[in-house]
Amino acid sequence: MVKKAISVRGLTKRFGDLVAVDGISFDVENGEIFGFLGPNGAGKTTTINILVTIMKPTSGEAFVAGYNVLEDPVKVRERIGVVFQDNTVDRNLTGWENLYIHGLIYGLKGEELRRKIEESLEFAELTKFRDVPVKNYSGGMVRRLEIARALMHKPEVLFLDEPTIGLDPHTRARIWEYIRRLREEGGVTIFMTTHYMDEAEKLCDRVAIIDHGKIVAIGSPDELKSNLGGDILYVKVSDRTISLKEFAEEILEEGTALSYKLLGDTLAFKVRSASKAIPLVFRVADSMNVTIEEIKYAQPSLGDVFLHYTGRELRDEEGDWKEMARMRIAVRRRR
Amino acid sequence: MNEARILYAMAYRQLKRYFRAKSRLLGTLINPLVFFLFFGMGWSATLRGSMARQLFGGIDYLSFLAPGIVMMAIFTASLVGGISVIWDREFGFLKEVLVAPASRAYAILGRALGDSLTSVLQGLIILIPLYFVAPALKLEGLVPTLVVGFVTALTFNSLGIAIASKMRSPEGFQLIMSLVTLPLIFLSGAFYPIDNLPQYAKVIFYINPLTFAVDSSRYLLTGKSSLNLILDLIVLLSLSLIFLIISIRIFKESTID
Ligand SMILES: Nc1ncnc2c1ncn2[C@@H]1O[C@H](COP(=O)(O)OP(=O)(O)OP(=O)(O)O)[C@@H](O)[C@H]1O
Ligand SMILES: [Mg+2]
C-alpha cells in the first residue's frame, strides 16, 4: 500500500469543556491540494497544530508523511513545512537572515544553504528586499517569505493555515498564484485551511467542510456542489401581506423548489432548474399578492454547500475579518 | 552536527537582534549608569580621606562601586534577554523553533549563549569608561571579569527563560523585572561591603547569586573582596549549570497549549 500524505482517524481535541476538534477522520493523497474550509473557531488551526506535532490530541490518531505524529514527531517534522496562521518570522531580522536561520535549523550548510536562500528569495520575489528588516515588509511580502521559507528544505507536505488572511484582494490573488505554481511543479502535498470559499474553490483539489470541530462534507468542489443538485434561486420580496414563510411554503407545495432558506428579506430556493422555476415563482407570487423586487439565480457555490450542511452562512469577508481580529485578542488574553 | 548548527543559528539570531536594537542596548545601560552617578558621585564626595577608604578595604568608593555596576549591567541585560522568550512566543517565532526537527535543548542553549555574549558586551561598554574615573581598577582584571560576567549572564539568562516559560502573557513583564532586579541589586553588596553586617542579614546576601558575581569581579578588578574568589566561582558555575538545566527541561516540554 502506498502511504498517504496525511491520514487522520477519530482525531479529537478538548480544551476543558470545549471540544475544538470532534472525532474527525480523513485522508489526503500525495500531491493534492487539500482544503479545510470552515468559519472562525471551527477547529482548523487546532487540527493543523496537532498534525505538525506542536499540540497533543486528546484522542485519535494522525499520520503525516507516513509517520505517527505522537510516536515519531521528529520524523514528521523533518518532512513538513509549515506556514502558521500568525506570522512566525523574526520581524527584527531581514528576509535573508530569517531564511539563513531556517536553513541552518533544517540542516542545510555551506554553498547549498546560500544557494537555497537565493532561490527562496527569488521564488518569493523578495531578492530586492533581502537586506530589509521584515518589520518593514507589507503583509503580502511577509506571507510570501513565510511560504518560501517553509519550502526551503523541500518538505513532502506543506501546511498553510489561512495563507491569505488579512491580505487585500490583489495580494491574495498573488499568493494563490504561488500555490498554483507549487502544484504545477509537483512533488509537494498541500494541506491548507481557509474560511474564504472562493479560495477553497479556486485552489483545492478536495475540500473538507468543517464546522464546530466536525467534518460535515468532503469531496472535490465540483462534487460537493453537484451533490446539492440544481441551482439556487434568490427571490427578494418588497411588498407582501403574508409572511415570507407562508410564501415559501406555498412554492414548495407547488413542487417548484426542493427546499428553501431564509436570508433576511431574501428567500433562497434550491431548484432543479432555475429557468423553469422562475415563471412558476412569479405565478405563485401573483396569486398571493406578493411583489417580487429582485430575482436572480446561481449555480451553487461552496458557500451554498456550507449553508446546506450547517444551516448557517459562511459570513462575508468583511465581517469575518473584524470578528477574527476580536477573537485573536480574546485568545491572546486567555493564553 | 545538526546540534551545532541550531546552537549557532540561535546564537546568531540573538547577536543580530542585539546589534539592530539600539534602544534595548541603551535601555539596559541606563539603570547602571544612573546608579553609578547618584551613588558614586554622592558618596565619593562624602567619603573622602584615608578613614573612609578603610571602610572599603583601602580603595576609593568609585573603584569599590565600579565592579558592582558592571555586574549590574550584565545581570539586567541577561535577565531581560531570558524573559524576552515570552516575546518569541507572542510574536510567533517560538513556533518556528518548536516545529523544527532540531534539538530544542540546543536551540535554547544557543539562545542563552548568544544572549550572554551580548550581555557581556553591555558590561564591557560600561566598564571601559569606568577605568577613567575609578583609579584603583586594574587593567589585567578586565578579561577575567568578562569571563565571570559570562557565567553570571548564563545564570540569569536561564533564570529569565524559566520565569518566562511560566508566564502566560507578557503583561507581567515589567512587574517581574522590577520585582526581581531591584531587590537582587540592592542585596548584592554592590553599594557597600557586607563584612560588617549582622549574621542574619548576611544570609540574605548569600542566597543572592549576584553577590558572588559582584564579589569576584571586585576581587579581579581591585584586589579587594569580602568572600573568597574560588568560593565565588564555584557558586556561580554551579548555579549557571543548574539554571541552564532547569531552563532546558522546561523549554523541551513546550507545546503551545
Ligand atoms: N489553546 C487553546 N485553549 C483553549 N481554547 C482554544 C485554544 N485554541 C483554540 N481554542 C478554541 O478551540 C476552538 C477552535 O479553535 P481553532 O483555532 O482551531 O479554530 P479555527 O478554525 O482555526 O478558527 P479561525 O478561523 O479563527 O482561525 C475555538 O473555539 C477556540 O477558541
Ligand atoms: Mg485558525
Write structural notes for this entry.
The complex is a heterodimer of chains A (335) and B (257). Chain A is α/β, with parallel strands linked by helices and 335 residues long. Chain A folds into two domains: 6-224, Rossmann fold, CATH 3.40.50; 230-299, Protein-tyrosine phosphatase receptor IA-2 ectodomain (Alpha-Beta Plaits), CATH 3.30.70. In chain A, 40% of the residues lie in helices and 27% in strands. Chain A contains twelve helices and 14 strands. Chain A has helices at residues 44-51, 73-78, 95-105, 110-123, 139-151, 169-185, 197-203, 221-228, 244-253, 274-287, 302-310, 317-334, and strands at residues 6-15, 18-28, 33-37, 59-64, 67-68, 80-83, 157-161, 189-194, 206-211, 214-219, 231-239, 259-263, 266-271, 291-298. Chain A has a six-stranded mixed beta sheet with strand order 6-7-8-3-9-10, with helices on both faces. In chain A, strands 2-1-4-5 form a four-stranded antiparallel beta sheet. Chain A has a four-stranded antiparallel beta sheet with strand order 12-13-11-14, covered by helices on one side. In chain A, β1 and β2 form a beta hairpin. In chain A, α3 packs across α4 (110-123) and α8 crosses α11. The longest helix of chain A has 18 residues, at 317-334. The radius of gyration of chain A is 23 Å and the shape is elongated. The two termini of chain A are 42 Å apart. Chain B is mainly alpha-helical. Chain B has one domain (2-252). In chain B, α4 runs parallel beside α8 (142-166), α7 packs antiparallel against α12 (229-252) and α11 packs across α12 (229-252). The two termini of chain B are 31 Å apart. The mean pLDDT of chain B is 87. Classes of the chains: A alpha/beta (335), B mainly alpha (257). At the A-B interface, α2 and α3 of A face α1 and α6 of B. The structure holds adenosine-5'-triphosphate (ATP) and magnesium ion. The site of adenosine-5'-triphosphate (ATP) has 16 residues of chain A, from β2, α1 and α12.
